[in-house]
Structures are given as C-alpha cells and as structure tokens.
C-alpha cells in the first residue's frame, strides 16, 4: 500500500504537481532525516544535505524505475547526496574542519525527536564513532533492513567490500558498547 501511494505521488510529481511533492516530503522526511543524521555530524550540514536530497528527487524523477522499490531509490539518493556533500566539504573546508576539531561541541544527537524514535542513545553514540564508510553500511543494514547485496548495489561497491565494512563496523560497535546490558549485546552479536 505504501509503495502504491508513493508511486502515485511520483506520477503526479512527474506531471509537475507541487502538492504531490509536499505530500512526498511529509511522508519521507523522518526516515530521510534519521538516515542523514547518522551519516552527517553537524545539524546545519544535515539541513543542507536534506535540501539537496529533495532537490535531486525533483530533478531525477525521470530516472525512477517503477519496477524497483521506491525506498531503495530514495535511499540511493540519500547516500549519493551525503557522499557528494563529504567530497565538497573536504575540498572546501579542510582547514576549517581541523580548527573545528579542536573546539568541537558535544554532538547534537538528542535534538530532533525523529532521531531518537526507536534508537538507544548509547548505540547512536557508538555508531557516530564509526568511520563514514562503516557507518553507511551499518545504518543501511540495521535501520533500513537492507541485505548486504542491496547495500552493495546502493553504494555501488563490491559485495566483499560491503561485508568487510559491515564486519569491521560490528567489531567497532562491540568494542565501543562494552557496558551495554547483556540482552542488547546479544542482539548486536546475533548480526
């Protein structure tokens, strides 16, 4: 039902219906913001990435293949925009990032209620400590339930690379969550 609704909105958006775009935004914002929050550290940067994602959605409607799941396409847009953001900010702000690293504030992971819905703060902080590449794989696997094969397709990298990032990310999470209650640790170890 959800996919049919999204497909109807996309069809209307292709015809230039701005109301359909607003409905699409409302229907997907929380999921997209949660994913971006895990992948982009600073709140002001998250907003820039979110804007780019929805602008890209509007301009790439013609590329949507209705035979593929809508959310898979949407998460592909998210990942590509986050990667573009990282490349741009690395090139432009490398010096500023070094300065910010010395005066970095506490993370703002607890600000939006969207981020904390169903997410343990301790696990969120541990995920934040992963490398960007590990974090992308872990977030797509655990928060969006993609298979490793689907993640490889989304990130456009070999399956073996996804598996190594996945296992390295899990190992880092286990190391960073040493004081997690036993029942939570068992859930992480099951993966």
TrEMBL record:
CDD domains membership: Sigma70_r4
Recorded superkingdom: Bacteria
Keywords recorded for this protein, A-Z: DNA-binding, Sigma factor, Transcription, Transcription regulation
GO biological process terms, semicolon-separated: DNA-templated transcription initiation
Gene3D superfamilies per UniProt: 1.10.1740.10, Winged helix-like DNA-binding domain superfamily/Winged helix DNA-binding domain (1.10.10.10)
Presence of keyword Protein biosynthesis: no
Domain RNA polymerase sigma-70 region, residue spans: 24-91, 126-175
UniProt-recorded Gene Ontology molecular function terms: DNA binding; sigma factor activity
Family membership noted in the UniProt record: Belongs to the sigma-70 factor family. ECF subfamily.
Protein name per the record: RNA polymerase subunit sigma
């Amino acid at each position: 039902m959800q996919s049919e609704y999204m497909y109807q909105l996309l069809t209307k958006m292709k015809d230039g219906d701005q109301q359909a775009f607003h409905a699409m935004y409302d229907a997907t914002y929380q999921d997209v913001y949660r994913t971006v929050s895990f992948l982009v550290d600073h709140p002001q940067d998250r907003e820039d990435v979110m804007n780019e994602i929805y602008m890209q959605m509007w301009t790439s409607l013609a590329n949507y293949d209705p035979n593929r799941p809508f959310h898979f396409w949407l998460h592909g847009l998210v990942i590509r925009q986050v990667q573009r953001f990282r490349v741009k900010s690395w090139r432009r702000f490398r010096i500023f990032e070094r300065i910010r690293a010395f005066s970095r504030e506490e993370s703002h992971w607890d600000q939006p209620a969207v981020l904390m819905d169903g997410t343990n703060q301790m696990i969120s902080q541990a995920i934040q400590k992963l490398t960007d590449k590990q974090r992308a794989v872990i977030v797509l696997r655990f928060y969006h339930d993609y298979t490793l094969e689907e993640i490889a397709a989304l990130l456009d990298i070999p399956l073996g690379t996804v598996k190594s990032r996945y296992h390295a990310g899990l190992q880092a999470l286990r190391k960073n969550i040493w004081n997690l209650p036993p029942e939570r640790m068992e859930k992480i170890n099951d993966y």
